[in-house]
Task: structure prediction
Amino acid sequence: MSELTHLDAEGRARMVDVGGKAETARTAHAEGSITMSLEALDAIERNALAKGDAIAAARIAGIMAAKRTAELIPLCHPIALTDTGVDLEVDRSLPGLHVTAWASTRGRTGVEMEALTAVTVALLTIYDMAKALDRGMEISDVRLTEKRGGKSGDWKRS
Result:
């Protein structure tokens, strides 16, 4: 790919016209992590945070974010998702949480941004809910892990 598709001939930002593209099944998966103190992780695991159940709140926040990605990322197309979800797993070796998300649609453009947005907002929600115990938490390794469908075909992180 040698050409940026979000720029017009004069170099101005524009939304890509996907009207001529074929509708296909499209799926994307993303992941990311947040590291924290053992005290904060223990409180999350015990559901003992003052703000409530961080894992449940992060899961819902991530799903909501995937559905609203086009409102957050300026040149993203609004997409009718057919499926999206977020999983959070405690990883004591970090210590912290590992978050994975996916998004699917049948449409003319991919759902990579929706999966990435879901992961990012889920991680930010964990930070917000546990910051009273650990302001030094670190969000890292947010990345696309797989995408399927569309003209460019399938891709998987090796």
